[in-house]
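Running low. Got one?
___
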Amino acid sequence: MPNKHSRPATRISNLVILALLLVVVQVACGALTPRSSDTPSPTGRGESRSTDPTPIPTGSGESSPATKVPATKTAQPLMSATSLPPQVTATTPTPPPRTRYTISADFKFEAHTLSVYQEVAYTNKASQELKKLVFVVEPNRYEEAFWLRGAWWEDGHAVEEFSLRGCLLEIPLPSPLLPGQTLKLRMAYELQIPERVGAFGFTEWQTNLGDWYPFIPPYQEDEGWVAHEPSFHDYGRLGEHLVYESADFEVRLNLGEAREGVTVVGSAPVEREGNIYRFSAQGVRNFTFSASGRYVVREVTQDGVAIRSAFFPEDTAAGEAALTVARESLAIYGEVFTPYQGESFTVVEATFKDGMEYDGLVYVGSEYYRAYDSTPYNYLTLITAHETAHQWWYGLVGNDQALEPWLDEILATYSEQIYLEHTHPEAAGWWFDFRVAAYQPEGWVNGTIYDFDGFRPYINAVYLRGATFLGELREKMGEEAFFDFLASYAESNRHEIASGEDFWSTLEKYEVEGLESLVAEYFE
């Protein structure tokens, strides 16, 4: 579509294909050489930050610019970097390896702490030299939650200079990292999990570990590292703000002497030996897990995928229904969009409101379990189908959640309708009236999380008006072309971070009569 239908000030350009690789390594902890006085001490706690009580959008979208660390250039080579292997043929280039995260963590469930050793293998996929690495450290937003004990280069030398400010950990490189070169960095840190209701925190019901480890955000050629600040308002946080590359993970979790009956569910396939859990996943956006002494877990296998539902015993009927919706959704979306890429998928009952997606694991709020009425006419069914759809629109196809949240949210929301059409066609018409029309939504679909002053205006504009747009687009295109478009968009942006331009360029391949006027009605 023409550029006028995307937001020039907020649109990110299409990133290079995101690919990374993974190694299991443990390191010994040691002292870190003190840094200069203008940055936090590496042996102290992270900068204190207050935060919202829930991870869902519930308030103002006061505009806040994205935090960017600009790239710098130099001509010196990096001593420990290794070059990528040569291409096999001129027509089949070898993609750069994905970033690899190898994590070993001792998890003291009762004390709510983790002692973590982490290795990252990172390849410079840009055409520019990099003089620093940037990590997003979300736990450092919470008071006394993160403590960096030390960091080391691959040769064992300590990282002597770094800056940990807010959620950004910046590490200057000893020599610039050239395009195609790879380096490894090791770090050790402690987490004191905060007592809070949310996707990162613990309550008497559960301990949730979302976005708990330092990760490297995407690097954008023209603007640098893509790391945004959240959008806060009087009632909490609005929308999601993180942007993830696809990466590979090997995680070893040791529960030690945790009390009997603690159950851990994660976002990746797991092998368990006593209280040792080993998770492995390739080409995913993140790794998360949840633990509780109260979980009941049900599991089914479908097309080689282990599908789990973890819930509290008083919500057994709803927990089993969530498993059914997840299983059906994976099958339907796999047929309509493209096959599901993972080997496992888990739905977790959450003590926080609404829902939250991660790659391979999603949360659905307890209020929906408690209100479940054994019919498809309820939010447990819809939100479970919605969060499952995020495995395609967020997981397989990434996007900038802060600046272009519509790219994943309108597709996940409309996927609820697609789910009902296949499983409960009698409820398909009810869906639009109940989910969309009842709120009389208004606003531009392509707003950023900083453009709204509350939860309802954000949801109405991005989610509900976005779903309305897709419904009208489907009518104009016809069934076959519409679903072919969705499948083509999914396949062409697999493991990438898609932008609005990618969405429109895929749609332009279909000659849709009246498309210009339809887009102008919904997009600024």
Summary: The first helix runs from residue 316 to 336. Residues 19 and 95 are 7 Å apart (CA to CA).
